[in-house]
Write a structure and sequence with these properties.
Length: 387
């Protein structure tokens, strides 16, 4: 049994979630339920392997070894039924960095890039920072979950979207996309000549009853028109180790991305390679236990809201440790909502509008922490917002 009920002491390590509160919210003493990493100790085998690696003082130039590729390939075969070869994999330090390189390599200034808000803020920032135009096809809110509005999605593709940045599973709405939805996306993108950038960073964090389908497994056509970004960082809480990968089956697209990565000498830190190798090889049981704990946290939040804050809307997430909460029933402006969270509840959450206009009245809650800290945060929110 791994320990998920023990709060890791993270203060004083320069970690964003706990140590950047003053910088970001102007107050260092908030309950930090924002940045998307977790407060749990890492896989013990990883801690040991990294400690052992530091005993050998060889820290010179290092390449991705066979053990690393074996781990990545075996993990994807076992967890995602995805068959990969070494050649399919391009190493990048981070997923956002990878997305930036893909946009630079496969699109041109002024090209249109489609996204489906509310969505991860860098999906707006990456194309905009490179002078691409954004096309927005907002998700539609169904009875029990968010969905893609395919009529609008197709209309936006018709406007000439060169690329679609897809969040699969989706941050912040927690959707795990079903085969039918994925087939629609691929079919439409293929019809309009749109490349799919499938960000699958959350794909290991899927709750029972749902199954992540990699875009690459949708059809041969999907393999031709898509590039996947993938990483152990969210799953195993090692974002600071900077190890991520792009998976590209189409040799022509891969060649263009590889050329740009080579041009800028992009590389991964030796500890990143080692960490990816260890967690994918030895972390499956840890992940299974983590998922049980996180699902318990999600259920706890939903029942807490139902009994104590019934005006707040929330869906049970299908994936990941981020929850999208709808406070619009309080009729506050976004600024007033966030001020109340900070000054009255004294809790740090992500503001919904950073995920797009559709996020007005919403906040994103990070449940990747101990149940005790989560409860403390929710009690404070209830005290501030309760009737
Ligand atoms: C969808 C998505 N992509 C990428 C990232 C971050 O990736 P990285 O830290 O590897 O750049 C996040 C982090 O929350 C995310 O939610």
């Amino acid at each position: 049994m791994y320990e998920f009920d023990r709060l890791l002491m993270r203060k004083g390590t320069d970690c964003s979630k706990w140590d950047a509160l003053r910088q970001t919210y102007g107050d260092p003493d908030l309950v930090p339920l924002w940045v998307a990493d977790m407060d749990f100790p890492v896989l013990p085998e990883l801690e040991k392997a990294l400690a052992a690696r530091t005993e050998n003082s060889t820290f010179g130039y290092t390449f991705a070894g066979e053990g690393y590729y074996r781990s990545v390939i075996d993990w994807n075969a076992k967890r995602n039924d995805l068959s990969l070869t070494k050649e399919d994999i391009l190493d990048v330090p981070g997923v956002v960095c990878g997305l930036s390189f893909i946009i630079a390599a496969l699109t041109r200034p002024e090209d249109k890039v489609l996204i489906t808000p509310p969505v991860y803020p860098h999906f707006f920032g990456v194309p905009k920072s490179q002078g691409r135009q954004l096309l927005l096809s907002p998700l539609r809110r169904g009875n029990e979950r968010y969905e893609i509005d395919f009529e609008d999605f197709e209309a936006k593709l018709k406007e000439g979207a060169k690329a679609f940045i897809f969040c699969s599973p989706h941050n912040p709405v927690g959707r795990v996309w079903e085969r039918g939805e994925l087939e629609n996306i691929v079919e439409l993108c293929a019809r309009y000549g749109t490349i799919i950038l499938s960000d699958e960073i959350h794909s290991d964090l899927v709750f029972p009853g749902h199954k992540h389908i990699p875009i690459l497994n949708v059809s041969p056509e999907a393999r031709d028109i898509s590039v996947t970004a993938f990483a152990p960082s969210k799953t195993f809480n090692i974002a600071g180790l900077k190890s991520s990968m792009l998976i590209v089956k189409n040799p022509e697209l891969r060649g263009r991305i590889r050329a740009l990565l080579d041009q800028f000498h992009v590389g991964v830190n030796l500890f990143g390679y080692k960490a990816a190798e260890i967690v994918y090889r030895e972390g499956e049981k840890w992940l299974e236990e983590l998922l049980v704990y996180l699902e318990g946290n999600a259920q706890f939040v939903v029942s807490f809201l139902k009994s104590r804050l019934p005006r707040v809307g929330a869906y049970l997430p299908e994936s990941t440790y981020l929850m999208w909460l709808d406070f619009s029933g309080y009729g506050l402006t976004q600024e007033a909502l966030m001020e109340k969270m900070r000054d009255k509840a004294r809790v740090a959450l992500n503001s919904g509008v950073t995920f797009g206009e559709e996020g007005k009245g919403h906040v994103r809650l990070n449940i990747g922490t101990t149940r005790a800290l989560l409860q403390e945060g929710l009690e404070k929110i209830a005290a501030a917002f309760g009737e």
